[in-house]
Amino acid sequence: YLLLDQPHGPSVIGEPELRQRLAGLGAAGDRALVRAVEAAALLVQNAAKQKVPKRTRTLSRSITTEVTRQGDAVEARIGPSVVYGKYVEYGTGIYAEGGNGRQAPWVFKGAGGKFYTTHGARPKPYMRPALDENREKAIREIGRVFRAQLTRPGP
Known about the structure:
This protein is an alpha+beta fold. Helix content is 46%, strand content 19%. The protein has five helices and six strands; from the N terminus they run E-E-H-H-H-E-E-H-E-E-H. Helix 2 (26-51) packs antiparallel against helix 5 (127-151). The chain starts with a strand and ends with a helix.
């Protein structure tokens, strides 16, 4: 099944029917589901890497996917491992989305030892657009890979 973020919380599409079908497939169904979710997540990961601002490419290189099993569900977490990734996505200071940033300017010391004053940085979303623009494609990819895994010969 597919877990989608909604304004009122996550929703599951096709959960009862899928649970019933997966129970009958055993380990092969479990493996197929993990591979299908991983393939869909990689579509979003690759899109995020294309969209992220690329000054040094550190942020882009840090975007990874981790697929885990949570009970009956398979969960994919896609995102950057560098701390500042969230600041690029949501902005900082007076520009932070939702007004959640520092409202007063602050001073910081740059790499060359020079001091700078800032009011923050504007958001440059890359993760959310990557998901939004690839949601339908990811759903189709889950179905395609799941079917391919279940119809291929071998263990």
